[in-house]
Amino acid sequence: MAGRSRSALAFVVVAALAGAAGAAAGTWPKHEPNAKDQALAKKSILHITDFTPGSGWAKAPDTSSGSVSANDPSCSGPQFSDVGRVLTGTASSSFQAQGLQVWSEADVMKTLAMANKDAVGMASAAFTTCMSAILRKSMPKTARFVSVKELSFPRVGDWSKAYRALFDISAKGVTIRFQFDIVMVRSDRVEISLMQMAPFVISSQAKDGEVRLVQRLAGSSTSLAA
Question: Which of these, 121, 102, 113, 109, lies nearest to 191 by C-alpha position?
Fold first, then answer.
């Protein structure tokens, strides 16, 4: 069914990106949670109250138990290494509506230098090369990879970067183009990722929603960082 194909593809994208980030990590990153930073991480992800009541958004099922291989030479550079990273808070959430799904993650780094190092890696040209490679290798047969490009996006927080992957999904003789946007923001020591899969025909509306949501998340991280 087309719905199941979209859900499977969305999981592939999220899991593959996460796998690439930690492919050569070994025992890293290290987790040293503390109550304050854990609260900060939870404050910096999406909650159901961030969506307009009655708009159709609901909590998405947890698909984190799956497994996706993201091994590719293009994802093995030093900018993808987790060595030296220490997380003192982490949280994630996912919500879905008809034809849409959104994910949010927040990691609180032990030091500002660690957060700055991550931002440099995610802004490198190697990121799009890696993302393209793992999507080409991991997509189901019903999907065809089209492209990954940097996405023009308003500045949010202390640093931000956005990328968009395009792919086509075919079912019952019908092909629909989808987009997968990933927006990354650093606000002091907090690293926020907002990801959304949506039909390309509503590209403008989907991006407007991403801007609103990520600005809310960055604002929440600032309010508790002091």
Answer: 109
